[in-house]
Amino acid sequence: MNEAQFRFYEELNDFLPQDRVKKSFPYRFNENPSIKDPIEAMGVPHTEVDLIIVNGRSVGFDYRLKDKDFVSVYPVFETIDISPIVKLRDKPLRKNAFILDVHLGKLAKMLRMLGFDTMYRNDYDDPEIVQLGLKERRIILTRDRRLLHAKHVTHGYCIRSTIPEEQLQEIFRRFELEFNIRPFYRCMICNGLISEIEKDAIIHRLEPKTKLYYHEFYRCGGCDRIYWKGTHYDALMSRFEMMKAKICN
Questions:
Q1: Is residue 206 part of a domain?
Q2: Residues of the chain below pLDDT 50
Q3: Which residues fall within 8 angstroms of residue 241, CB to CB, at 6 or more apart?
Q4: Distance from the CA of 190 to the CA of which of 30, 93, 183, 227 falls in 20 to 30 A?
């Protein structure tokens, strides 16, 4: 029986039992498994990992664990560019397009409201989410860490909070999104792009009072929904300002 020492850093400790949090601990194994296997066996999704150091050097997920190895496992670095030494992925983890699982409908609406490309349906199953995430190079957001254990998933994040506003803060911290906000750029219903349209082109679809009092209109290119700056717009702007204040604090 071989033995290696593991140490997980920062938020990766969220996935560990208390007796392994923020400390080195032994891991016993037979033969020489790829290092990805014990990391996920300990409950840490591989998509959460951005750097693995073994005996002082960066390694990839295909590294074969050896007796007496000392393994340090790190999450995404927020302020330091470690790309020259990372050997885990061919492509950067961060990409501002998402696909969300069935439990994150409210978060999907908030991300769309802030202008982020966000796929969501309440009937997606796990294989479909993985397939679409890979095909369209989307980051998978989920509360189910098992979804991120899928072999081919490379871009994903396991959300900790159950509260939508806190979930949004997590995403903004994790992917540094604050400089990419484009409010009301996407439809909250279908994720389509919203663009301005002449009033005359949709006047037949408007209620009499809407025709009378409003003159600027916008249409979703996906579901054809019509938007204008009525009382609902003021309410959305108020909600947007509240979200932005929480994100920036």
A1: yes
A2: 79, 93
A3: none
A4: 93
Is 80 a member of any domain?
A: no
- pLDDT for 69 equals 97
Question: In whole angstroms, how far apart are CA 13 and each of 6, 44, 145, 156?
Answer: 12, 8, 14, 17
Give the per-residue pLDDT at 244.
74
| CA separation for the pair 158, 156 (Å, rounded) | 7
Domain count, the chain: 3
d(CA 156, CA 206): 42
3-state secondary structure at position 22: coil
Please tell me what DSSP assigns to residue 65: P
Q: Which residue has the tokens 């927020």?
A: 78
> Are residues 159 and 142 in contact, defined by beta-carbon separation less than 8 angstroms?
yes
pLDDT recorded at residue 95: 57
Consecutive H or E run containing 111:
helix 105-113
Q: Among residues 123, 144, 122, 148, which one has the least CA distance to residue 133?
A: 148
Q: Is residue 189 part of a domain?
A: no
pLDDT of residue 130: 95
Q: What is the pLDDT of residue 49?
A: 92
* Average pLDDT over the chain, rounded to an integer: 89
**Residues 163, 104 share a domain:** yes
| Full residue range of the structural domain in which residue 168 is found | 97-180
DSSP annotation of 63: P
Closest CA to 248 of 184, 168, 185, 191: 168
Residues 176 and 109 in one domain: yes
In a domain, 173, yes or no: yes
CATH number of the domain within which 14 lies: 3.10.20.30
* Tally of residues, the chain: 249
